[in-house]
Amino acid sequence: MSPQLSLLQPYPFQKLKQLFADVTANPALAHINLSIGEPKHATPQLVTDALIAHFDGLSAYPATLGSDSLRQSISTWLARRYSIAAPNPATEIIPVNGSREALFAFAQTIIDNSGESQPIVLSPNPFYQIYEGAAFLAKAKPYFVNCNAENRFQPDWDAVPAEIWQRTQLVFTCSPGNPTGAVASLADWKKLFTLSDQYGFVIASDECYSEIYFGDEKPLGALEAASLLGRDYHNLVIFSSLSKRSNVPGLRSGFVAGDAKLLASFLLYRTYHGCAMSPMVQAASAAAWDDEVHVIENRELYSQKFATVTPLLQGVMDVQQPDAAFYLWAKINGDDAEFARKLFAEEHVTVLPGTYLARNAHGINPGLGYIRIALVAPLNDCIAAAERIVRFCRKYSLPL
Question: Is the pTM of this model over 0.85?
Fold first, then answer.
């Protein structure tokens, strides 16, 4: 058995299940789950139609590189969305079975353990737990860079010592961020690119929330930032997904794009890994990337929820509408795990404690005293949950 497996911590939702193990929730109230980032809006008809129309794809083995038509759809979407030159569909794009498996597998491709010192993988903190697991199972050491309110919830790259940068082979970024919804600026990207040039590490930019934003300003992407700064994609790849954009988490469809040399190695790894995308899923994915109407409608649904729920909660907790994504990262008084436990027991509402999404690093846990509220349920449920949270906070005099 690999000793690296012992380093993995339970997933946040396993911890949440344990937290609630001996709790009996208020039976008079219907359960409203705002803990997991699982889209609940309807899957677009064009996706299901494409799936049904391509059942014949089940009779053939899929290619690891995916179809020409899917890669072309992704390339066209990237060019349209970010106003960049269309990436080469043959060398700069690989379809993947969701960003989660690709983020994990990419680290296994990149990390080189042949040196004398253990390689390091940098991660924002709080973070998506796959980053940590990918580092451990690649036999690297995760190093967490705290994202605090005073730094716009962006990783404080200046706080990373030179000796850490010298051992760093891979940096995970997440913009828009999970759980904070913070978006990296062009200046943020410029700083990270400069550090990558200096120390030679690879940047893996997780951008699966890029299409859920509010207003007219689209979140800046890593490839877009590179283009604006006159750079090529050397040592840079992005990960995107249809799960949030198109409400198809069960489709397990995304892509990796960027540095052609890195993707060639990643493709070789994936050829042996055996994770090619089903042809019918590829056809449905191309249909989704080719259409923006359903994405605009999806954003409007989230905008309505944030515009309604955020003001309700602001009376009892320190919370602001995020730059993007579908989470509220709310500061509360007291222990976040105990808050979540009591809220579930009394109001039958589930939220995720912030400490479950972060690690103790540099003397603090940046998730301490926060809860993550995923506004994925229908509008009426989100409003009802917010009203229950307000009632709960006022009952215990918890407002900040």
Answer: yes
371 within 8 A of 332, measured Cβ to Cβ: yes
Contacts of 234 (CB under 8 A, 6+ apart): 259
Q: Do 362 and 249 contact (CB within 8 A), yes or no?
A: no
Q: Are residues 54 and 23 in the same domain?
A: no
Check whether residue 380 and residue 280 sit in a common domain.
Answer: no
> What residue numbers bound the domain in which 382 lies?
3-42+294-395
pLDDT, tens digit (0-9, with 9 covering 90-100), for 140-191: 999 999 999 999 999 999 999 999 999 999 999 999 999 999 999 999 999 9
What mean pLDDT comes out for the span 262-276? 93
Spatial neighbors of 304 by CB under 8 A, at least 6 apart, are 379
- Specify whether the CB–CB gap between 145 and 123 falls below 8 A: yes
> Which amino acid would we find at residue 306?
F
CB 117 within 8 A of CB 167: yes
| Same-domain status, 35 and 68 | no
Q: What SS3 class is residue 369?
A: coil
